[in-house]
From TrEMBL, chain A:
Organism: Dictyobacter vulcani
Gene name, Swiss-Prot/TrEMBL: nuoE
Keyword Cell cycle set for record: no
Any one GO molecular function term: metal ion binding
Protein name, as recorded: NADH-quinone oxidoreductase subunit E
UniProt cross-references to Pfam families, sorted A to Z: 2Fe-2S_thioredx (PF01257)
Keywords: 2Fe-2S, Iron, Iron-sulfur, Metal-binding
Lineage: superkingdom: Bacteria
InterPro entries in alphabetical order: NuoE-like (IPR002023), NuoE_dom (IPR042128), NuoE_N (IPR041921), Thioredoxin-like_sf (IPR036249)
Automatic annotation (TrEMBL), chain B:
Substrates-to-products reaction catalysed: a quinone + NADH + 5 H(+)(in) = a quinol + NAD(+) + 4 H(+)(out)
UniProt superkingdom: Bacteria
Keyword Acyltransferase listed: no
Alphabetized SUPFAM superfamilies for the sequence: Nqo1 FMN-binding domain-like (SSF142019), Nqo1 middle domain-like (SSF142984), Nqo1C-terminal domain-like (SSF140490)
Sequence similarity: Belongs to the complex I 51 kDa subunit family.
Protein name per its UniProtKB record: NADH-quinone oxidoreductase subunit F
Organism: Dictyobacter vulcani
One Pfam entry name: SLBB
């Protein structure tokens, strides 16, 4: 559901920019906040608020990787695997997280709690290896600190201790 | 070392808030600019300072501003805070820790360029940076530093913080404008240049976040003062993002012209190579720049010297590679980035980055052939200078420079189906170090 409040914010954005069309990206961000990913309803709401066709909005939404095309886990873990993190062993960090969460990169756990992605440079190169959980940074990771992080996330999610 | 300029006061507690920023001299440069200078005077001052763009190309900033077309269309300023070049992590830190320095730079630059609407395009993934900049802009509006009649002057400015959504290409200035206009981020044909026909068809200045955040210090200290740092042609200081296999990676602000070796080995900075290994290669300006060999380690870090050594100062991301690393694996990793981030608009780049990755992958995993090495060089030749935007060229930098310097490693992979680095490692029976060598198998 896209709330009336969200639609109002989109309309306000459309008048904030010199051209209404510029509000398409921030409005898609709002739609995604509401529903967790970009749904047909989200596309429609954005199109209506800015006065574009749905197809037009969709063509923008599919260009940018942060607009998710399908539901994501509650905690989205994005591990950087670009060069500076690679030189600091990010690949073994990814394998470790895959084992710990029981999923491969690009997958979501069956309980819908975690999505594990590998992503490109997240501007944390001097603190490699680095990852983001729902956009927040965790840096200079070791297997131990990654485990501690998952423990903490498990507690936040109320997940029972894994065997 | 001289007093820091762009990172000055970065660690003062609360400097992200307006009141603390002001207690430390913040927005005094803006007041001075509005009180003492006409817009054109500021452009002259920036020319005197010698400030050059910190986004990649190093174009002289004052000159860029003076190129703005004189017509009656509205002018725009875009701050490029889309930081995403692998190896680069300075704009994020500025935005997270001292966002008002950027906002102040945006206001002064807008005044100098007679702009009344400015945009700060913050990379979507940098959630905290985006939040901080938005908050700083709100605080500035509330304090009369933005909006109508700034600080009682007759200058008015609106600033809109725009968040990206995951696309490296949107850091390219024409793609950034497309994205701001609400479209897919495909680069535009140049000319016309943004200074003539830019955002919404108006004359537009696009500068990097660090470039703009340097402006207040130049107004405060003067053009000659800023020009007293650095070398004759590369003036001032900049942030070098030191990453990779060094003991102390980090963001270090240095005057231009300090040797690479100081940044990498000095105890105040990098402190030497990780695990006391040997230096194998340096990428001096982000993953889009050519790889330098260790004999270039004494090169001064200024635009001219690094160019003479065969690379570019680029975005300031200095990536250090030690002899524990297989160059084939490292270059594969860098090439995957360009394959994934190619916007797909033109064939040489879309197809070329795909095939280069395929070939590097088969070499890396032991299924390659000797002739693949020359094939890679061929593909690079068909990409560089023949693609629509500089991303295509960037994708070839590490491959061509890497093969030129480390051809025997590529050929070893083709001949023996395995990695020269790990084979040497086994022969030498090195004592096991805390961290495993990377990219060896
Ligand atoms: C593929 C590509 C990506 C780029 N990414 C960035 C970026 O993330 N940040 C940036 O400031 N400049 C980036 N640039 C350079 C910009 O096009 C532009 O030159 C720069 O923002 C100008 O600012 P400056 O003169 O202050 O350096 C990129 C260029 C290319 C070709
Ligand atoms: S060179 Fe690559 S990134 Fe640039 S326009 Fe062509 S396909 Fe797009
Ligand atoms: S390479 Fe991983 S954060 Fe930049």
């Amino acid at each position: 559901m896209i709330s009336e409040q969200a639609k109002q914010r989109m309309r306000e954005l459309a008048s904030r920019y010199p051209m209404a069309r510029s509000a398409v990206m921030p409005s898609l961000h709002i739609a995604q906040q509401e529903e967790g990913y970009i749904t047909p309803e989200g596309l429609r709401a954005v199109a209506e608020a800015i006065n574009l066709t749905v197809a037009d909005v969709e063509s923008v939404a599919t260009f940018y990787t942060m607009y998710y095309q399908k539901p994501q886990g509650k905690k989205i873990i994005n591990v950087c695997t670009s060069i500076s993190c690679y030189l600091r062993n990010c690949d073994s960090l990814v394998s470790h997280l895959e084992k710990r969460l029981g999923i491969k990169r690009g997958e979501t756990t069956a309980d819908g709690n975690y999505t594990l992605n590998t992503v490109e440079c997240i501007a944390s190169c001097s603190s490699a290896p680095a990852l983001q959980v729902n956009g927040e940074f965790y840096e200079n990771l070791t297997q131990e600190s990654a485990d501690a992080l998952i423990d903490q996330l498990d507690r936040e999610l109320g997940v029972e201790k894994r065997v | 070392m001289p007093e820091m300029i762009i990172t000055k006061n970065l660690d003062v507690p609360g400097i992200d808030k307006l009141d603390v920023y002001r207690q430390n001299g913040g927005y005094e440069a803006l007041a001075k600019a509005l009180r003492e200078y006409q817009p054109d005077d500021i452009i002259e001052l920036i020319k005197t300072s010698g400030l050059r763009g910190r986004g990649g190309a190093g174009f002289p900033t004052g000159m860029k501003w003076s190129f703005l077309a004189k017509n009656d269309k509205p002018r725009y300023l875009c701050c490029n805070a889309d930081e995403s070049e692998p190896g680069t992590c300075k704009d994020r830190v500025l935005m997270e820790q001292i966002p008002h320095r950027l906002v102040e730079g945006v206001i002064i630059t807008s005044y100098a360029c007679k702009v009344h609407t400015a945009f700060i395009y913050v990379r979507g993934e940098l959630a905290k940076a985006g939040r901080e900049v938005e908050r700083a802009v709100d605080e500035a509006y509330a304090a009369g530093l933005l909006g109508k009649n700034i600080l009682g002057s007759d200058f008015s400015l609106d600033v809109i913080v725009h968040r990206g959504a995951g696309a490296y290409i949107c850091g390219e200035e024409s793609a950034l404008m497309e994205s701001l206009e609400g479209r897919r981020g495909y680069p535009r044909l140049k000319p016309p240049f943004p200074a003539v026909v830019g955002l919404y068809g108006g004359p537009t200045v696009i500068n990097n976040c660090e470039t703009l955040a340097t402006v207040p210090a130049i107004i405060a200290g003067g053009g000659d003062w800023y020009a007293s740092f650095g070398t004759e042609k590369s003036k001032g200081t900049r942030i070098f993002c030191l990453s990779g296999q060094v003991k102390k990676p980090g963001n270090y602000e240095l005057p231009l012209g300090v040797p690479l070796s100081t940044l990498i080995y000095d105890e105040q900075y990098g402190g030497g190579i990780l695990d006391d290994r040997k230096l194998k290669a340096i990428i001096p300006g982000g993953s889009s720049t050519f790889i330098l060999s260790p004999d270039k380690v004494d090169t001064p870090l200024d635009y001219e010297s690094i160019a003479a050594a065969g690379s570019m100062l680029g975005s300031g991301g200095v990536i250090v590679i030690s002899d524990a690393t297989c160059i084939v694996g490292a270059i594969l990793r860098m090439t995957e980035f360009y394959r994934d981030e190619s916007c797909g608009k033109c064939t040489p780049c879309r197809e070329g980055t795909f095939w280069m990755t395929e070939i590097l992958e088969r070499l890396e995993h032991g299924h390659g052939h000797l002739k693949d090495v020359d094939l890679l060089m061929d593909i690079c030749d068909n990409l560089a200078g023949k693609s629509f935007c500089p991303l295509g060229d960037a994708a070839t930098s590490s491959i061509t420079s890497g093969i030129r310097q480390f051809r025997e490693e590529f050929e070893y992979h083709a001949r023996y189906g395995c990695c020269m680095v790990s084979s040497n490692e086994k022969k030498q029976q090195q004592p096991t170090t805390a961290s495993e060598p990377v990219g060896t198998h």
